[in-house]
Amino acid sequence: MKEWLVALVPLLMGAVGAFLGYLLSLRAKRYESIARFKEEKYARLLVKLQGFAGATTSATLKKEFFEEQYQSWLYASDEVIEALNAMVRLVIESRGTPPDRAAGQKAVGNIVLAMRRDLLRRTKLDYTAFRYIDVID
Hints:
The protein has 137 residues and is an all-alpha fold. 72% of the residues lie in helices and 0% in strands. The mean pLDDT is 86. It is rod-shaped and about 85 Å long. It contains four helices and no strands.
């Protein structure tokens, strides 16, 4: 009986180790896939945000932004949703007049910062680090 245990224990340990390794690799692949998906979606939102900034202001981009923003409810972190909602509130409150420039920069910067935190978990930056730059011909 003792001989069977000596042979069986290493086999069981190997099987358990292989199974745990498999589960961990599946989890890592899933996390990587989700992170890649979010990065692509956040990049689209970021481009569409240009519809609210300076010389790049565009009704078409704004409409596309709102379409992307609605979809973000399915994948974005709570912090990103809250930042998006704060910017939407700013747009609604301004009712067609340009919002306060500093408040607009803060709202957009907070969105980008929230996306960054969702993807990277940590950052030393704050909302002032992000700026859209109008390209002049």
